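TEACHING EXERCISE
Course module: macromolecular assemblies
Task: Read the component lines below, then compare them to the predicted structure of the full complex.
Student: A.B.
Group: 4
Components provided:
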Amino acid sequence: MENNMEKSVEERIRSLKGRLIVSCQALPEEPLHSSFIMGRMAVAARQGGASGIRANTAEDIREIQKETHLPVIGIVKHNYPDSGVYITPTMREIEELMSVKPEIIAMDATGAMRPKGVSLAEFFSQVKEKYPDQKLMADCSTIAEALLADQLGFDFIGTTMVGYTPQSQGNRIEKDDFAILREILCSVKHPVIAEGNINTPEKAKRVIELGAYAVVVGSSITRPQLITREYAKAIEELEKGD
Amino acid sequence: MENNMEKSVEERIRSLKGRLIVSCQALPEEPLHSSFIMGRMAVAARQGGASGIRANTAEDIREIQKETHLPVIGIVKHNYPDSGVYITPTMREIEELMSVKPEIIAMDATGAMRPKGVSLAEFFSQVKEKYPDQKLMADCSTIAEALLADQLGFDFIGTTMVGYTPQSQGNRIEKDDFAILREILCSVKHPVIAEGNINTPEKAKRVIELGAYAVVVGSSITRPQLITREYAKAIEELEKGD
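Instructor-supplied answer key:
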């Protein structure tokens, strides 16, 4: 039974290979914040051809699992006063996620210290000790971080944080035809999930073509306030005489 | 009082000039069908810089008015067995809309017969007789239809149906640098609202630049299933060896 369960998770994860994962997240301050809405967003994503969902909080994931039965990359975003790490920073968020058992749990792997001064390596071994079968994804921002995560034994290496940390500032996932992704792809043993600023179908196609295991697209599908902003900005250019 | 109310509607409509209107619609068969979700979508649109909302059904409009206070172009989509006209086809839909009084009511103006064999001209005069102060928008698909709607006295001429009727098949709003829009703009007296397949910020900017009074953008902001489809299609091209 245990084996079947495991095999099923493996199969579900394999169904993501070469495919699109849609990130359905809305933080409390965002207009679509609501597990009900995220569940419907995930249905929309599935209808459009998504093979998996990335989602935040056990509550949202539970709703998404109920509504879509798609494999999920789960995270819990939480801000602690003593650390800049906010994507699944502590065991508390791991426990929350284990209550809904997403196929993959993703966490910050940028090398910044977690709350109470816990390092990524320490945290990784705590999680693996308690949940040895849980697949884990490392949200990295640089090649060095990707290499470390790969050595630690993360099941998936993600480019989620490229451009979003001080050490990756000015870099962008798409820069020089995805140079950072290509470098990571040829340096690590574990499969790489492309994520972070993938905001056009062409970019999504290109990262799969380059060899990413899967691609995660978020805001340009599920954050209408940001999509609207692109339209409003284009129109405002006219007023500035551009 | 009556005058103040009218003036206020006029002012609210003027606030749309040169601006973005976001269409927030989800039909019963769509994953986001829910007045609650459409209300939150409208909040997201306002947050992103939308100046108005186009919406379907009194229920959705009521929620959107409560959540955003933005001016609304209201429609009611309803299919009748004896007509292909489904955007505000009869007085029943007008009455439904008048229960929430959107600043503008839009209706099919493609020249097709409405239910019970009522022509556009007959319907327009029925509506104007009962609600002389209500601003009306004509959803047209061809230049001839736009000219007729203009002569009938519609307050706004819309390109909503270009490409979506038998008589406009093969045409697209953006074709030949928006040839149909430019022709309508220099042929009609009333302001023109660009709508229909405006799915990039560049197109939205261009139609305003050409002189459209406002631009309505819908699916590419508020239909995540269609946005997802574009991504999934791009990735699928790889499997076809493209």
